[in-house]
C-alpha cells in the first residue's frame, strides 16, 4: 500500500490540514493517510494546556467520514520527544510492506536541515512537500543538508528529487488556504466564529469543552 503520513500538533486540526491530505491522496494515488498528532513536538512549544487526548479526539471527529483517513497515537505511546525520524523508523517496523509518503509543508521543508537526523529521513520515506503561500520553494535542493545534496537527482519537469535510496522528494503546489491553528485559537479566545475554519464537529467539541478560551 501507498501510505501518507501527516504529522502535526493539530492544536486544533483545521480545514487546511484536511485539504492538504485530500490533495496528496489524490495526486499521488495513495491508498490511505495516517494523521499522527505529536505528543511532545521538538520544534515548537505547544500553546495552551491542551491535552494529547483532546487533540487526538478532534482529529478523530474531523476525519470520521473519510474512510481513507485514520489517526494514530504512535508518538504518545512511544513517549519522549516526537522526532519524525523515530516515528518513520517505527512505522517501517509496523508496516514493512508499505511505501511511506511523509507529508510536510514547504515552510517546514525550508528548515529541514535543522531537524534531528534529517539526512536519515530521505532513506525512510518519500517526502511530500506541500507548498504553503508564504513559503514557496524555488530550488528544491537548497534546503537539503549540504552533506547529502549530491545524493539526489533533480527532475524539473516532475518537480521531484530522486534520492539514491529509491525514495523521492515531491513538490506539490496546492490549494492556497492560509489558515493556521493559531488563527483558530485566537478567534476562540476573542469570541469570534470559527465556522468554516474547522469542521463543524470540531467546532462543537471546542465549544463544549471550553478549550482555547484562555490560550495565550
What key phrases describe this protein's structure?
single chain, 216 residues, alpha/beta, Rossmann fold, eight-stranded mixed beta sheet, 8 helices, 8 strands, 31% helix, globular
Biggest beta sheet summary: 8 strands, mixed
Give the fraction of residues assigned to helices: 25-40%
Distance between the termini: 41 Å
- How many strands appear in the DSSP assignment? 8
Total number of helices: 8
Which strand order does the major sheet show?
3-2-1-4-5-8-7-6
How big is the Rg? Answer: 17 Å
Q: Structural class, from helix and strand content?
A: alpha/beta
Task: Name the average pLDDT.
Answer: 93
Describe the structure.
The structure is a single chain. The chain is an alpha/beta fold and 216 residues long. It has a single domain (2-176), classed as Rossmann fold (3-Layer(aba) Sandwich). The chain is 31% helix and 19% strand. It is built from 8 helices and 8 strands. The chain has helices at residues 15-27, 52-63, 74-78, 84-94, 106-109, 118-121, 181-189, 200-209, and strands at 2-8, 32-37, 69-71, 99-105, 126-130, 152-155, 160-163, 168-172. An 8-stranded mixed β-sheet has the order 3-2-1-4-5-8-7-6, sandwiched between helices. Helix 2 runs antiparallel to helix 8 (200-209). It is globular. The model has no long low-confidence stretch (mean pLDDT 93).
Amino acid at each position: 500500500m501507498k501510505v501518507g503520513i501527516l504529522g502535526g500538533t493539530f492544536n486544533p486540526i483545521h480545514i487546511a490540514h484536511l485539504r492538504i491530505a485530500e490533495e496528496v491522496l489524490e495526486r499521488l494515488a495513495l491508498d490511505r493517510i495516517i494523521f499522527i498528532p505529536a505528543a511532545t513536538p521538538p520544534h515548537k512549544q505547544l500553546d495552551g494546556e491542551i491535552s494529547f487526548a483532546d487533540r487526538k479526539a478532534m482529529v478523530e471527529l474531523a476525519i470520521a467520514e473519510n474512510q481513507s483517513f485514520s489517526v494514530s497515537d504512535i508518538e504518545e505511546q512511544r513517549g519522549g520527544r516526537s522526532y519524525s525520524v523515530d516515528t518513520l523508523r517505527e512505522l517501517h517496523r509496523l508496516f514493512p510492506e508499505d511505501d511511506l509518503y511523509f507529508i510536510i509543508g514547504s515552510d517546514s521543508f525550508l528548515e529541514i536541515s535543522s531537524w534531528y537526523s534529517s539526512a536519515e529521513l530521505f532513506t525512510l520515506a518519500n517526502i511530500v512537500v506541500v507548498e504553503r503561500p508564504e513559503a514557496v520553494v524555488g530550488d528544491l535542493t537548497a534546503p537539503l543538508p549540504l552533506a547529502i545534496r549530491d545524493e539526489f537527482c533533480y527532475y524539473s519537469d516532475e518537480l521531484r528529487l530522486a534520492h539514491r535510496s529509491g525514495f523521492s522528494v515531491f513538490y506539490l503546489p496546492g490549494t492556497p488556504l492560509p489558515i493556521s491553528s493559531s488563527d483558530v485559537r485566537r478567534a476562540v479566545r476573542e469570541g469570534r466564529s470559527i465556522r468554516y475554519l474547522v469542521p463543524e464537529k470540531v467546532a462543537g467539541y471546542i465549544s463544549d469543552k471550553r478549550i482555547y478560551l484562555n490560550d495565550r
